[in-house]
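dumping this here so i dont lose it
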C-alpha cells in the first residue's frame, strides 16, 4: 500500500551481484472507498418524498459513485443520483415514493469506485408505506361527569402507531393547525377506553 520503489540486480553462480537496475516506482492502492447510507436506515418504512443521506469518501482518488433503487419484487433499477465528488454525511438524492406500490420493498444501493479500481457498496432495504391505516370503527362516546370516555374497535395493521382524537373537527392533542407530520400527536395503541 502506498508508493513503492523496485529495482533488480543479477547474481551469478559465484555469488557476484551486478549493479541495480534503474528504479521503477509504483503506487499501490488497495483501499476501497468508504460508503454508507445514513438515512433511511436498513429495515425502515418510508413514505412520500424523502431525502437520502449518505457518506462517500476515498483517499483523494474517488472516480464515481451511484445510488440506485432496486425493487425486490422485480422490475428495473432506478438511478437516483450519481456523482464524482466526496460526500460527508449529506443528502445525495431526493426520492419520490408516492408512485411506488404500497408495501413494496426496495433496496437502496450505494456504490463507489476509485481510480485504482477498488469498489465499495452499502445498502438499505426499505418498505414503501404510503397507504393510511383503515379508519377506526365502532366509535362510542359516554359522558362521565365532566369527562367523555371514548371507545372503538382496535385497528389490525401491523405498523399502526396510534390514534388521533378530534373534537368538532379539531385535533385535540395539537395546538393550532395540525403539522404535516402527525406522528408525535398519536395516542398510544391502548387508547380505547381512555378519558378525554
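and the seq i came up w/
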Amino acid at each position: 500500500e502506498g508508493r513503492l520503489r523496485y529495482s533488480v540486480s543479477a547474481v551469478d553462480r559465484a555469488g557476484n551481484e551486478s549493479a541495480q537496475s534503474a528504479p521503477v516506482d509504483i503506487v499501490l492502492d488497495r483501499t476501497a472507498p468508504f460508503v454508507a447510507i445514513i438515512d433511511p436506515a436498513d429495515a425502515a418504512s418510508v413514505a412520500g418524498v424523502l431525502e437520502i443521506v449518505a457518506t462517500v469518501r476515498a483517499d483523494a482518488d474517488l472516480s464515481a459513485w451511484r445510488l440506485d433503487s432496486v425493487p425486490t419484487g422485480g422490475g428495473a433499477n432506478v438511478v437516483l443520483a450519481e456523482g464524482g465528488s466526496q460526500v460527508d454525511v449529506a443528502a445525495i438524492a431526493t426520492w419520490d415514493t408516492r408512485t411506488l406500490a404500497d408495501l413494496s420493498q426496495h433496496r437502496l444501493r450505494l456504490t463507489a469506485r476509485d481510480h485504482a479500481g477498488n469498489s465499495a457498496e452499502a445498502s438499505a432495504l426499505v418498505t414503501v408505506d404510503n397507504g393510511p391505516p383503515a379508519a377506526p370503527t365502532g366509535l362510542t362516546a359516554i359522558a362521565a361527569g365532566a369527562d367523555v370516555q371514548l371507545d372503538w374497535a382496535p385497528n389490525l395493521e401491523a405498523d399502526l402507531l396510534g390514534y388521533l382524537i378530534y373534537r368538532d373537527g379539531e385535533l385535540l392533542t395539537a395546538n393550532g393547525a395540525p403539522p404535516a407530520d402527525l406522528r408525535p400527536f398519536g395516542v398510544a395503541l391502548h387508547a380505547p377506553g381512555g378519558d378525554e
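Residues 162 and 189 are 5 Å apart (CA to CA).
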